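User: Let's play a game. I give you a shape written as tokens, and you guess the letters that built it. Ready? Here's round one.
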């Protein structure tokens, strides 16, 4: 018996989801007092922003691994 995975199409691009998550986390951190929890939320926001920048960088022309294959 094969287990079927639930699959669904994302309505937003990865970049949009990462930007929304970073914004949401930064807004959440604004409401928290200074401390470990706030630092953790800000770390996650920076991580989402880094992922966003990496994704944008990889989508640039010339970053496609197929373009780097030797002839």
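Assistant: Ready! My guess for every position:
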């Amino acid at each position: 018996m094969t287990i079927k995975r639930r699959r669904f199409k994302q309505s937003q691009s990865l970049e949009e989801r990462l930007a929304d998550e970073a914004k949401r986390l930064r807004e959440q951190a604004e409401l928290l007092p200074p401390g470990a929890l706030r630092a953790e939320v800000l770390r996650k926001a920076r991580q989402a922003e880094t992922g966003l920048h990496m994704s944008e960088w990889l989508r640039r022309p010339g970053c496609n691994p197929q373009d780097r294959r030797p002839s």
